[in-house]
UniProtKB/TrEMBL annotation, chain A:
Similarity field: Belongs to the binding-protein-dependent transport system permease family.
SUPFAM superfamilies membership: MetI-like
Compartments, as annotated in UniProt: Cell membrane
Family annotation (Pfam families): BPD_transp_1 (PF00528), BPD_transp_1_N (PF19300)
GO terms for cellular component: plasma membrane
ABC transmembrane type-1 domain residues: 96-305
GO terms under biological process: transmembrane transport
Organism, scientific name: Bradyrhizobium shewense
InterPro entries: BPD_transp_1_N (IPR045621), MetI-like (IPR000515), MetI-like_sf (IPR035906)
Residues that span the membrane, as ranges: 9-30, 100-123, 135-156, 176-196, 240-266, 286-312
UniProt keyword list: Cell membrane, Membrane, Transmembrane, Transmembrane helix, Transport
Lipid bilayer topology: Multi-pass membrane protein
Protein name: Peptide/nickel transport system permease protein
Automatic annotation (TrEMBL), chain B:
Principal subcellular localisation of the protein: membrane
Organism in which the protein naturally occurs: Bradyrhizobium shewense
Membrane topology category: Peripheral membrane protein
Entries under InterPro entries matching the protein: AAA+_ATPase (IPR003593), ABC_Ni/Peptide_Import (IPR050388), ABC_transporter-like_ATP-bd (IPR003439), ABC_transporter-like_CS (IPR017871), Oligopep_ABC_C (IPR013563), P-loop_NTPase (IPR027417)
Protein name in the entry: Peptide/nickel transport system ATP-binding protein
Protein function: Involved in beta-(1-->2)glucan export. Transmembrane domains (TMD) form a pore in the inner membrane and the ATP-binding domain (NBD) is responsible for energy generation.
Length: 319, 331
């Protein structure tokens, strides 16, 4: 098992290198660089600009710049953000907790809704409960988060004035007040992202359950007189969760992607809004670092999916 | 003595978009203690649905028991809820299914799947349940039972899995075992082993066996009494020797003639006779005898009046107008 994980991590190295090359080239081809603002600044003489560009190697050929970046990365130097005037790794670490807090809570909310609702709907297919759950799920994943997000803000912040619509990291107050305020400001983004996730997950849980529930071994379990609840939890869910867990792990990168939009709407100072603002201000080192972090997450969650799959399903041996 | 299980006028229906599918339409079957009863018939004749109806293992809804009684040890099972039936499932009536490849849960060890039945029905500790499970696996002749108990189903062959299924069905020592085509999915050599094992177990525990099969060879080897089903109805019922020696119903005769014979010289061998046509779809079945369209002895009365079961010899009943003296002018 540990050997398998180790080997998978080794295989991840070339793919991550490939991803970084592509990212680097695409960013290099994009117009503008961190110093393009200097060019329009009349207070900086052209020779100073040229000296700075030469100092930071911005005019070197692309492969040299890539090797330079790679070398720095390998030494733990993620670069320097010219816009924020701080190191990229500090910047990312500063932004990451907000993202993880919101995404993590949203995923938990999604699971807490999707699993019970999906399981119960599958045990009573085409019942009233199932029909309502299905309809809501359909509505849920048809509505994009940028729409529901704005709708929520309109209803709960503007009209009802219950919740703040701007997320801040410097909440005044301490102790229990701080905790409550953190929860209060996260309610809307977590709800928007979590409900959207829950909608598609519910349908997936339901269909995975329905796939299993009609299988022969479920009849075997019922013939043992185990009772409905035990049959469903021990024999049906245990099997139905295999594809669900895999799907959730594989969806995580998409969840991070979706979080970018949500972070923009609610002004959450997370890693997603950092990416957007860096792109807009030509802060190449940050864009490069954030996209690379996303790439690592994709690779990592793929690995987690495979490991979980092997752990949940004894028929699969990880060698 | 009253029979162990008595099915009276059982009707199991499945509503479909085209009408009500009468999968089982008025079946009477009784099984005595310690007896092996074979239920034979083609695929789709209602054998499995009859068996599944006993413990309400059919999907309900859509399926439903429309009429009839299922009396087990003097108690009618039909009005019982699923929860009430749970006390009887595995404890009193054990089930062996057709497909050993798909009837075991792939993510639980075979030991766990046998032991959970024991823990459900008997006051045993985990350790005791495990010991009993190992004992059962030994009984069904699984080598290295102590080690194999912790294996998953995919680590067993088809025949071994069917042994596990038998061990599972027998674990709580039920009074009746219902085996639904337990050998159909297995190799011929394994089939004989599994049937032998079933016989052994039956003798050891003194239970009754209801063996559902479509193989007449299996019937001849194992049964004491035979029920022949056709299109959701019982068409003939007889002790096994009587059935093979003196089959009354044209359908039974057809079934017996479709068995290959190796005991005849080659010059006496005839072509195997197949019964033409197939089982009718049981939505709005025709009036009269359901076998009439495929029967070479069919008379006018056969498509007009439904034949009822009548005794033609002691313990031998059939539902056919042939030779019925009460039918004025009939053959």
């Amino acid at each position: 098992m540990s050997q398998y994980v180790l080997r998978r991590l080794m295989i991840a190295i070339p793919s991550l290198l490939g991803i970084s090359v592509v990212l680097f080239v695409v960013l290099a081809l994009a117009p503008g660089d961190p110093f393009s603002e200097l060019a329009t600044n009349p207070n900086v003489p052209p020779e100073v600009q040229a000296a700075l560009r030469a100092k930071f190697g911005l005019d070197d050929p692309i492969h040299l710049r890539y090797l330079h970046w790679l070398n720095a990365m390998l030494h733990g130097d993620w670069g320097f953000s010219f816009v924020s005037r701080m190191n990229v790794d500090t910047l990312i670490l500063q932004r990451l907790p907000a993202t993880l807090y919101v995404i993590g809570s949203a995923q938990i909310l999604a699971l807490l809704i999707a699993i019970p609702v999906g399981v119960y709907a599958a045990t009573k297919p085409y019942s009233l409960f199932d029909q309502i759950a299905n309809t809501l799920a359909f509505v849920g994943f048809s509505l994009p988060t940028f729409f529901t997000g704005i709708l929520f803000i309109l209803i709960f912040s503007v009209t009802l004035d219950w919740l703040p619509f701007v997320y801040t990291t410097d909440i005044k107050g301490t102790g229990i007040h701080w905790v409550l305020e953190m929860i209060r400001q996260a309610i809307m983004p977590v709800a928007v992202l979590g409900l959207f996730q829950a909608a598609s997950m519910t349908r997936f849980v339901r269909s995975a359950m329905l796939d299993v529930i009609r299988l022969d071994y479920v009849t075997t379990a019922r013939a043992k007189g185990l009772g409905q609840a035990k049959v469903i939890v021990k024999h049906v869910m245990r099997n139905a969760m295999i594809p669900v867990v895999t799907l959730i792990a594989l969806q995580m990168p998409a969840v991070f992607g979706g979080a970018i939009v949500t972070e923009q709407i609610f002004r959450i100072p997370g890693i997603g809004s950092l990416l957007i603002s860096s792109i807009l201000s030509n802060d190449t080192p940050v864009v490069m670092a954030v996209t690379f972090v996303f790439a690592c997450l994709v690779v990592l969650f793929n690995l987690i999916a495979d490991v979980l799959y092997g752990w949940l399903d004894p028929r699969i041996s990880l060698r | 003595m009253a029979p162990l299980l008595e099915i009276k006028g059982l009707k199991t229906h499945f509503p479909t978009d085209d009408g009500i599918l009468q999968a089982v339409d008025g079946v009477d079957i009784s099984i005595n203690r310690g007896e092996t009863l074979c239920v034979v018939g083609e695929s789709g004749c209602g054998k499995t649905v009859t068996a599944m109806s006993i413990l309400k293992l059919i999907a309900m809804p859509p399926g439903r028991i429309a009429a009839g009684q299922i009396i087990f040890e003097g108690r009618d099972l039909v009005p019982l809820t699923s929860n009430e039936l749970d006390e009887i499932r595995a404890k009193e009536i054990g089930f062996i299914f057709q497909e050993p490849m798909t009837s075991l849960n792939p993510v639980l060890t075979v030991g766990e799947q046998i032991a959970e039945s024991l823990r459900r029905h008997e006051a045993v500790t985990r350790k005791q349940a495990l010991d009993r499970t190992i004992e059962m696996l030994k009984l069904v002749q699984i080598p290295n039972a102590e080690g194999r108990v912790h294996n998953y189903p995919h680590q067993f062959s088809g025949g071994m899995r069917q042994r596990v299924m038998i061990a599972m069905a027998l674990a709580c020592k039920p009074k009746l075992i219902i085996a639904d085509e337990p050998t159909t999915a297995l190799d011929v050599t394994i089939q004989a082993q599994i049937l032998d094992l079933l016989q052994d177990m039956k003798e050891r525990f003194g239970m009754a066996v209801m063996l559902i099969t479509h193989a007449m060879g299996v019937v001849a080897e194992t049964a004491q009494r035979v029920v022949v089903m056709y299109a959701g109805k019982v068409v003939e019922e007889a002790p096994v020797d009587d059935l093979f020696g003196n089959p009354g119903h044209p359908y039974t005769q057809g079934l017996i003639r479709s068995i290959p014979r190796i005991d005849l010289d080659s010059e006496h061998k005839t072509r195997l006779e197949a019964i033409g046509g197939s089982v009718p779809i049981l939505i709005n079945p025709p009036v009269g005898c359901r076998f009439a369209p495929r029967c070479k002895f069919a008379m006018n009365v056969c498509t007009e009046k439904e034949p009822l079961l009548r005794e033609i010899a002691p313990g031998h009943r059939m539902a056919c107008h042939l030779g019925d003296t009460n039918l004025g002018g009939a053959a």
